[in-house]
């Protein structure tokens, strides 16, 4: 009898190892470890149906709630420049189950499944060399949150950032707390969740200091359309079960386990978010900008000038030149060693 499951598992292990070796080889050949990368690092490309199948959804139904969440693959429509993408949709319900232990419902989310192992252990995303998380999405205007989980000491820690878009708006009016419907917008609950005040990155209005590009508008601009949003990785807020925790720590960018999107605005009703691609970047390169123009039209982001002019390579070349000149004038012996230490 052939152990089919073992063979399948081994095939997946070998495939992941080969893909990671290939990525690291390209990284080394392009000398990206010696300069700021100008090429994007794709995490999810939802034009590939397997990327959708590699994700899992979550909702309050696991505790008896009534919210639903689905992540489906949607074929593209080339004639309308609509790319294949993932559709995150469902319905939020703040109705409480008949269980006195449950006092909060009304949430839904998705994220990638465990990435598994490769030849050198557990597989993580290494985003150490990147400044932004980019998402090309089509939003319905609800208050979505981007979630990043790393291999941190506290497994349940999640770094979060509001997914601000041109069509971002606050919909609905908070309801007074009741047995069958509760609100997270009450002053008491807000103070409990954010004892030091609501962090800018989780507020309703996108702070200009953390959001770049024209996606910084906090109001809707008409019918929703495709757009690309860049979120600075150093602006994500450390949370635990939705509560901001202290001390705040930076994301362990070299050991990212999962990336996903959640909806916790606790507004009853349907939701619908389309996601084309999620990637790490230091700015829009020409390839991504071309895709952006094709999909987003007038709302597309321009090529980042730093990427266009190759500022990273220029800076690295200047550093190498300076180091070479310095090495030619170095003193020998202990005096040279002392001067090298002082440098």
From TrEMBL:
Residues 209-221 have a biased composition (Low complexity). GO terms for molecular function: unfolded protein binding. Residues 44-168, 223-275 form the NADH:ubiquinone oxidoreductase intermediate-associated protein domain. Keywords: Chaperone, Mitochondrion. Coiled coil: none annotated. Residues 332-343 have a biased composition (Basic and acidic residues). Signal peptide: none annotated. GO terms for biological process: mitochondrial electron transport, NADH to ubiquinone; NADH dehydrogenase complex assembly. It comes from the Eukaryota. Residues 164-222, 307-343 are annotated as: Disordered. It is found in: Mitochondrion. One of its GO terms (cellular component) is mitochondrion. Its main location: mitochondrion. Belongs to the CIA30 family. This is NADH:ubiquinone oxidoreductase intermediate-associated protein 30 domain-containing protein. The lineage of its organism: Eukaryota, Fungi, Dikarya, Ascomycota, Pezizomycotina.
């Amino acid at each position: 009898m052939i152990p089919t499951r073992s063979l399948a598992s081994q095939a997946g292990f070998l495939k992941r190892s080969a893909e990671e070796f290939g990525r690291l080889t390209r990284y080394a050949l392009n000398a990206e470890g010696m300069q700021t990368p100008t090429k994007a690092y794709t995490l999810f490309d939802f034009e590939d149906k397997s990327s959708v199948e590699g994700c899992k959804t979550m909702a309050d139904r696991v505790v008896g709630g009534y919210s639903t969440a689905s992540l489906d693959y949607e074929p593209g429509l080339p004639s309308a420049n609509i790319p294949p993408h993932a559709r995150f949709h469902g319905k939020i319900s703040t109705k409480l189950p008949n269980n006195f232990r449950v006092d909060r419902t009304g949430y839904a989310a998705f994220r990638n499944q465990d990435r598994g192992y490769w030849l050198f252990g557990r597989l993580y995303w290494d985003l150490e060399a990147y400044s932004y998380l980019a998402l090309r999405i089509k939003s319905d205007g609800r208050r979505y949150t981007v979630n990043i989980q790393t291999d941190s000491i506290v497994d349940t820690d999640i770094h979060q950032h509001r997914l601000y878009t041109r069509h971002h708006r606050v919909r609905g009016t908070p309801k007074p707390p009741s047995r069958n419907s509760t609100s997270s917008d009450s002053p008491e609950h807000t103070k409990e969740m954010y004892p030091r005040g609501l962090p800018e990155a989780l507020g309703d209005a996108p702070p200009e200091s953390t959001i770049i590009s024209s996606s910084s508008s906090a109001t809707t601009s008409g019918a929703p359309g495709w757009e690309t949003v860049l979120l600075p990785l150093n602006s994500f807020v450390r949370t635990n079960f939705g509560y901001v925790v202290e001390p705040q720590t930076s994301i362990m960018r070299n050991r990212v386990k999962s990336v996903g999107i959640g909806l916790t605005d606790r507004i009853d009703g349907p939701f619908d978010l389309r996601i084309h691609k999620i990637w790490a970047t230091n700015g829009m390169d020409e390839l991504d900008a071309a895709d952006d123009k094709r999909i987003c039209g007038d709302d597309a982001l321009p090529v980042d000038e730093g990427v266009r002019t190759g500022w990273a390579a220029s800076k690295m070349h200047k550093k190498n030149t300076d180091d070479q000149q310095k090495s030619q004038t170095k003193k020998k012996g202990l005096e040279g060693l002392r001067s090298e230490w002082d440098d």
